[in-house]
Amino acid sequence: MSYAIKTEELSKRFGRVQALNGLNLKVPEGAIYALVGPNGAGKTTTLKLLMNVLRPTSGNCEVLGVASEKLRYCDLAVIGYVSENQDMPDWMTGRYLLSYLRPFYPTWDDGVAYETARDLALPLDQKIKTLSRGARMKLAVVSSLTYRPRLIVLDEPFAGLDSVVRDQLVQTLLQRVEGATVVISSHDLHDLESFVSHVGYLDRGCLCFSEEISFLVERFREVEVTLGATPRMPVDWPKNWICRESSSAVVRFIETRFDSESTPTEINRRFVGSRNVSFTPMSLRAIFTAVARSSSGTA
Amino acid sequence: MRHTLHIFKKDSRHLWKEILVVTTMIAAFAYLGARSRPVLTAYALPIDRLDAIYRLLLPLAWWYLIAAVVHGEPISGDRQFWLTRPYRRGSLLAAKVLFVLVFLNLPMLLADCVILAAHGFKAWSYLPGLLVRQLLLLLVWFLPFLALATVTENLKQFLLLLVMIPVLYFIIAFVGRLPVFGLYGHGEWIPISAMIVVVVVGTFLILRIQYLHRRTTLARGIAICALPLALVVPSFFPRPTAYAAQLALTHRQALPASVVLGLDLSRQDGQDRNSLVTDGEANTVELDFPLRATGIPQDLDLIADHLAVKVRTPDGNSLNTTWRSLMFSDRNGQLWMKVHIDEAVFQKLRRTTVTVRTSAYLTLLGNSRATLIPAGAKSMEVPGIGRCSFLPDNMHEWVLFCQAPFRQPVDFCKAILGESEIRKFNEALPIGGSYSPYPAELEVSPLVLTFNGVYGISRPISGALMLTATPLSHFHTDFELPDVSLKDFVLDKQTVDSHF
Question: Taking the CA of residue B410 as centre, how many other CA atoms within 13 Å lie in the half-sphere pointing to its CB?
């Protein structure tokens, strides 16, 4: 499998703060990859390292087969980057920004640019500094899709946007990115779960998991064990059982490596005399909440 | 090139208001430079004063525009939109340099031509000077500030850095007790060249690091090292090294080998003492040694560019004197060496005989010429010096000044007015005379004041005689004044004796 993005032991330290710690991330080509995690998890830092905006403290990262530190203008001509915290040239109008960027991209398509802008109802003749947050983000997206990039990196593109604008952007994105790899970061999975193919969870600079969504949903189960008359709790709990809760008769936890054969056997071995065991599939949101609770130590 | 022009066009469009302001300021600079008189006396016109102030303000306008264009695509920081766009870094830098060339160098070139023409100089006659001046403006006045702008994130940071530069200089000067610029006299161009080298190398490194690798911390480190170094080089550059370099760069003639210097025993009694008093440092004693120079061909004059004087005591110790030693001829043509010695050392040695050892870098002047500048002359050409004016400033004061394009002239000059007509003329040393091989200097104005004198004259005079001479040969010699008693050479014997 070829990867659009590959990092090896990627670390970044800002003074005393370890923003990223040995990140090993692989994003397959053609994937729509969601990089999620709480605020301060290191998502923006990761994306900036990938784009060579920041320099890593240690480790390596590759984008489209090129080491990030060696990305040249010709490599950037096939990468789109949109970030909520990027400074735009405020004095330009949207129209001027598009015409200014055109000569930098050999594959720029004015037709796509203005059609997308029209679809998004983007006021192109207004100066960027007068645009709303949503309109600025639309403009950033338009200016990054118009040259049919092979890779699109979006850093918190929906932060602070209302649901109408968000849906417009998602729709535009899905229409225009055929065949391209998309990496999109967010602290809220709800923004992304409807259209992403892969997901990675970053917490405090570490990647907790990174896989296809179908696999992820398959391996997480909410487990409920109804105990027998003389309940005996296991002495040691496997690490893959997280978010444990128990009452006198029932134990609940989340199995993060569910297997239809081995998991029931393991439960029966540890909960001797249990009366009933149920396995409930989880939504993505529930999975992330559980992982977040688990990694923050509240579960 | 296509990208360079594209970015340049964008910057021109974005900064048209700033460009307009700076272009207007350069036009005003040209107007003031064309209309004003460079000598500021008590009776100077407002336009003359404005021109002097304006020369200080204009660089601020240049630097503001430079910072604005650099911050169009800031290098420092991680939020700039252009970082993730396919900019060719070389094209980006080239666009910024092109902007400086078009909106600063070109208007300055035109302003120079206007100022020169207004003062009677034909610009095309000074083409090398015109071009080298533009190069110096670019390398020293513009690009270093472009480099500094790349290590700042915004205009506020850049302005703070600009304020820090003079503060840094004064701190270094105060802590290091630096002497001021002008130490090197005619060889000033050597330490200035060293400074230019530091500035250019620092600028090149910062621009390369920032535009090719975007390593702001490293670039800031280089700026932090290069800035103080550039500021102190002109003051700390060893004077003997400067003159040794000067000597190495000029061809030696066989002529000076015959020149021998020694104490003029016939004037050792202290009579016929000259009247030149210099500003000595605190706690120093000023000594005047009468010298005799033999072997100097007729019609040639000897001047000292640098003297390193040491006093050797009977017990074999060698003591340095201050850097202010100089050699000059008095009105009678007698040669003197003036040395400042620490007062405590003088006290210790005043009753003993010592040997004064001098290492001298000397220059022979020849091809003397005299040109009469009539009183009331507005602009008269004096060969080798430039164009001179001799005009009344008020009822009793006359101003004699000369200007030349781009640099101090090679020739030395000295003005002589009739003795009976002089009240405040104490000019004993020839002035001017730069050994610089460059056709231009690092001035804001294209015109350099090559001579400047204000004279109180009580009755009508016909004019001033401008004497000029050309440096023909530089050479180095060591000589000794053996067995001298320092107290015999104190400038004002009576005062010093009563003091001690």
Answer: 16
